[in-house]
Amino acid sequence: MARNSVSLSVPEPSWFTPKRLLVIFCVINLLNYVDRGAIASNGVNGSQGTCTSSGTCTSGSGIQGEFNLNNFEDGILSSAFMVGLLVASPIFASLAKSVNPFRLIGVGLSVWTLATTGCGFSFNFWSITICRMLVGVGEASFISLAAPFIDDNAPVAQKTAWLAIFYMCIPTGYALGYVYGGLVGSYLNWRFAFWVEAIMMLPFAILGFVMKPLQLKGFAPAESRKALISMETAIPEVQDTEALNVKGSAESMKEEFGHTFSKLKCALFNLNRFSRFTKDMKELLVDKVYVVNVLGYCAYNFVLGAYSYWGPKAGYNIYKMSDADLIFGGITIVCGIFGTLAGGYVLDLMTSTISNAFKLLSMATFVGAIFCFTAFCFKSMYAFLALFSIGELLVFATQGPVNFICLHCVKPSLRPLSMALSTVSIHIFGDVPSSPLVGVLQDSVNNWRETALILTSILFPAAGIWFIGTFLHSVDRFNEDSEGQVTEVDRSNTTPLLGPKVAEARESSGEP
């Protein structure tokens, strides 16, 4: 009887199961990259106005045509989000130690929703550029915290596969964005693409504030620690506490949004947190395994970022593809899904170790680069599509392994910062400069085939950098914090809080 009362008095977890958590995070990630693909599509991005030698001029279309942007300015639009990402990523990663990470995601997605709405109302180059910067804030909160949540709750034998499923949404989102942007631009107006995205993201932004907050391995805000300690030491009082919580739930929910922002404001000026942040940054930057992994990722993302933005235009100009958005979108969806999933499952079959991840990264990228480079050498569109598809399939196999290394070469308390720094680095040294630089290169050489070959060749150095990683001494530090090095967290909080852990533990030990 006592055992039954204990199990009933323990607060039940939220309706989130690990699989539901994965699905929701995948949908959010998908929407994030649909936005990227949409702004790169011919339907939304559009084209410049042209004039013939006889003086006949045609007006441009989409963003580029309406705001009269050159290729360099057009490339900046794909990179503007980096400003918000660069500023916000380390802040969100650092605040995860004092503010519940799931609430931080809610804050970021709210900013993302408002910024995307603003893109639809933009009136010139600078207004849409500022809105794109704010979009980066939303990505900063989500990307740096979602992957650790998934890694916490994935089955041990399927961690890389679960990460692969999550990161599969990047190429899939881009591809759907191409198709979505092309259709909206053709039948409505490019502004509607952003408004619909905002409407679709709004429920997830609200979810971050109204549902029971989740905790990360190695982290627990002070109020969460007190609640768990109280539950373990005063089980008979839980029912009374629950009654009080139910009575005040409506009032506390009303104050949740304002309370979270208040915490953010106070935390920014806390000198101790800044000192801890710099110490954590130093620990990451002296880790050879982490640095080599991120350097290879930067070179890889330089190519993939330019592919995603300029691919449809290059295909249209080189091979006269009338439906470049649909063709590139279709290839990217198929190759992105199967390639990313295959990379995760192959690494799990090889046994998920950091050394094996480096081997898979270097080999898949090298062989994929050969196929992609050869594809652009052919004049036949069908030969290009066949070879380029195989190359993309191999190149996308890196998504699971590269993020597995980022999460497992550092201790759990550093994982949000590890993901944040990785994300900032691959953008600031990868796809952010690549889009405008490729635009400058194309303006100079005026030959899309030559531009594509030069860009694709950068995949070879990426494979070489990851090959160096196979010779580095590496240690999987996933469980290091639970061995006595937990940062600001009670030892009992080092497991994910998606299930009734306390009740299970008590029942299994036979305690009343």
UniProtKB/TrEMBL annotation:
- The lineage's top-level taxon is Eukaryota
Renumbered to this chain, the Basic and acidic residues biased-composition regions fall at 503-512
Q: Which InterPro entries match?
A: MFS, MFS_dom, MFS_spinster-like, MFS_trans_sf
Q: How does it sit in the membrane?
A: Multi-pass membrane protein
> Which GO cellular component terms, listed alphabetically, does the Swiss-Prot or TrEMBL entry include?
membrane
Subcellular location(s) of the protein? Membrane
Q: Where is this region: Disordered?
A: 484-512
Q: Which residues cross the membrane?
A: 76-95, 102-126, 132-150, 162-180, 192-211, 289-310, 326-346, 452-472
Keyword set, alphabetical order:
Membrane, Transmembrane, Transmembrane helix, Transport
Q: Do you know which Pfam families this protein is assigned to?
A: MFS_1 (PF07690)
Say which family it is in: Belongs to the major facilitator superfamily. Spinster (TC 2.A.1.49) family.
- State the protein's name: Probable sphingolipid transporter spinster homolog 2 isoform X1
